[in-house]
User: Which sequence fits this backbone?
């Protein structure tokens, strides 16, 4: 046994160590915010906020910068990725927790966690060297032939099939965020009180009915939160899309148009930005992305928190 | 408890401030030379550095952070030398109190993928290239391309021009060439490491462009010479300033360096694009080293390395597909060093 005094000091020391580790995190976030703001300031003061967000020209030679195209590109690719990823991820989560035998569920769960551990640059290289040529040669021409003739919807599939476009980028993104969404959904399903499910079964409900009427409603909020977290991840993803989006500063006109996202612009132009205002404009984009991700993460955390409290 | 918390927050602030403060300093001394900048010459500088280390025991640490970063770092004096793929203008050199000289030359070539013409070589000129990249020439059988290649069977297929999606010295050299030969390009787009391309598709890095052209029929792109060779893609001939059709070879790149206006008074600021020589390849650029003027001691160390490289490094450069400077240019650079008292 330590003496009382020693114990007191030990506690104090312990408190100090843990608290300072925790404060470092806050410090880092605040620090990033301040640095981004400071570095972006020349661009903020020169282009303003509204003008920068709604202007679509990005011309480093003439020093005219506006962030509309990359901001729209970021949102478009991320939402498209969610549309593909969410149903698949929910399917996976349902299968693992409700349908599959326990052992099989564990194996699949492990495989999904492995998928989440692949560094994103690998997805990027795979996208450029394998997926993009396949898309250009087979998948996109096929979709174009199949759906291109339909009025309105066909517009989405018009244009040259080049393989470096929103469609390819969104598919890669969706593959990347699927495991993440699935993991959050699985964890949510696992906390559904067995009593609820058992009573539903007891009343003669089928598996489908239990999932539809008990599990999903119970986890609604945390699934939404999980989707939000995945969206945050898709928004910030860089290397996986840097290779396959083309960094063309034009609004997309179809799924097969190249465009730019904030992160693609940063990854592509940061190293060789030789004018100060160009660099500041890139920091400005980063700053906007930071605020956007922070907001989305905050909202989704709130949703998840709300269900956990119940 | 509350008091302790306030104390803690303060302590963390002070501590981290101290840590960052220390990190911000840290100059280099002794047997280690730190450089940073352009990515294009990185393979060569690191090969030279390793040879130099074996020969003299002095270590060169070169970080390929990009030309923009290189210029910034040497301007802030955080490295011993900076490297850039574009020359800085003499006024800028004076303003930032720097010294500048070239190390090696690189050629940019036009790679294309035209299955119809097999191994026959395409000929292009500046105006056609400019129109292709402006999106005005849209198909391969355009009369203007046909006029340059009367014997080739050019298909009616859309041209996909490929450009660099990332900012790069290659783009800077290429767009400078287009601005030289095509007033419309100069007026509407201009030159720089990233420009506002209108037509085609962006690929990341030289390897990205080379790979895309290789895999996509009817595309065309500009890449560093080395990447075209390594990927075994077809490259076009070009009509140069004198109206002669030239092929991209180390000799025609060298010719461009010989005939371009490299002068010590201008800190070797010169673009080698669209050079005068009869046999000169028109899209050539040099990569540069930047030094801080007020540090003769460090500069002498750096110069020793590059002088050694000029003397012993040509073979190594050629192996890596860089083109060494012609002897007359090297002589001029040594004069420049002497004039600034660092050689």
Assistant:
């Amino acid at each position: 046994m330590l003496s009382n005094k020693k114990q007191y000091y030990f506690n104090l020391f312990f408190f100090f160590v843990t608290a300072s580790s925790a404060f470092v995190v806050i410090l880092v976030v605040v620090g990033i915010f301040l640095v981004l703001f400071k570095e972006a300031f020349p661009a903020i003061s020169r282009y303003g906020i509204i003008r920068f967000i709604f202007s679509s020209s990005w011309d480093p030679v003439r020093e005219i910068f506006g962030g509309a195209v990359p901001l729209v590109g970021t949102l478009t690719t991320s939402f498209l990725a969610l549309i593909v990823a969410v149903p698949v991820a929910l399917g996976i989560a349902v299968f693992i927790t409700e349908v599959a035998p326990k052992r099989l569920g564990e194996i699949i769960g492990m495989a999904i966690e492995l998928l989440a551990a692949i560094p994103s640059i690998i997805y990027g290289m795979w996208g450029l060297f394998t997926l993009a040529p396949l898309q250009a040669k087979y998948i996109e021409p096929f979709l174009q032939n199949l759906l291109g003739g339909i009025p309105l919807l066909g517009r989405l599939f018009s244009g040259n099939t080049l393989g470096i476009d929103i469609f390819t980028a969104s598919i890669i993104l969706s593959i990347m965020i699927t495991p993440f969404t699935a993991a959050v959904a699985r964890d949510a399903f696992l906390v559904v009180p067995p009593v609820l499910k058992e009573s539903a079964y007891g009343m003669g409900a089928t598996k489908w009915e239990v999932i539809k009427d008990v599990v999903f409603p119970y986890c609604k909020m945390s699934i939404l939160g999980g989707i939000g977290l995945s969206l945050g991840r898709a928004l910030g993803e860089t290397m996986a899309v840097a290779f396959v989006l083309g960094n063309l500063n034009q609004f997309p006109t179809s799924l097969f148009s190249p465009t730019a996202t904030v992160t693609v612009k940063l990854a592509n132009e940061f190293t060789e930005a030789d004018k100060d205002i160009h660099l500041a404009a890139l920091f400005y984009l980063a700053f906007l992305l930071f605020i956007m991700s922070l907001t989305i993460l905050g909202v989704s955390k709130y949703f998840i928190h709300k269900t956990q409290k119940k | 408890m509350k008091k302790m918390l306030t104390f803690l927050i303060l302590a963390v602030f002070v501590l981290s401030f101290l840590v960052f403060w220390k990190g911000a300093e840290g100059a280099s001394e002794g047997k280690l030379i730190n450089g940073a900048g352009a990515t294009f010459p990185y393979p060569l500088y690191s090969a030279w550095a390793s040879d130099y280390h074996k020969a003299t025991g002095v270590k060169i640490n070169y970080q390929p952070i990009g030309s923009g970063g290189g210029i910034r770092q040497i301007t802030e004096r955080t490295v011993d030398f900076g490297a850039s793929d574009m020359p800085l203008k003499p006024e800028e050199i004076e303003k930032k109190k720097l010294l500048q000289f070239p190390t090696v030359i690189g050629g940019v070539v036009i790679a294309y993928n035209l299955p119809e013409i097999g191994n026959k070589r395409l000929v292009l000129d500046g105006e056609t290239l400019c129109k292709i990249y402006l999106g005005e020439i849209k198909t391969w059988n355009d009369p203007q391309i046909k006029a340059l290649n009367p014997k080739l069977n050019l298909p009616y297929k859309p041209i996909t021009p490929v450009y660099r999606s990332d900012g790069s010295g290659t783009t800077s050299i290429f767009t400078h060439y287009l601005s030289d030969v095509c007033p419309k390009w100069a007026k509407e787009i201009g030159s720089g490491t990233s420009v506002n391309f209108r037509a085609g598709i962006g690929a990341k890095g030289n390897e990205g462009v080379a790979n895309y052209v290789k895999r996509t029929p009817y595309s065309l792109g500009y890449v560093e010479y080395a990447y075209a060779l390594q990927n075994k893609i077809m490259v076009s001939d070009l009509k140069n300033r004198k109206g002669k059709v030239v092929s991209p070879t180390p000799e025609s790149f060298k010719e461009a360096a010989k005939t371009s206006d490299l002068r010590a008074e201008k800190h070797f600021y010169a673009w080698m694009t669209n050079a005068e020589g009869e046999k000169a390849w028109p899209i050539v650029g040099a990569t540069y080293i930047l030094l801080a003027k007020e540090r003769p001691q460090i500069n002498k160390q750096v110069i020793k390395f590059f002088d050694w490289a000029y003397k012993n490094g040509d073979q190594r450069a050629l192996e890596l597909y860089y083109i060494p400077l012609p002897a007359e240019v090297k002589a001029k650079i040594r004069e420049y060093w002497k004039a600034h008292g660092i050689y």
Notes: Strands of chain A lie at 58-59, 64-65. Residues 60 and 278 of chain A are 6 Å apart (CA to CA).
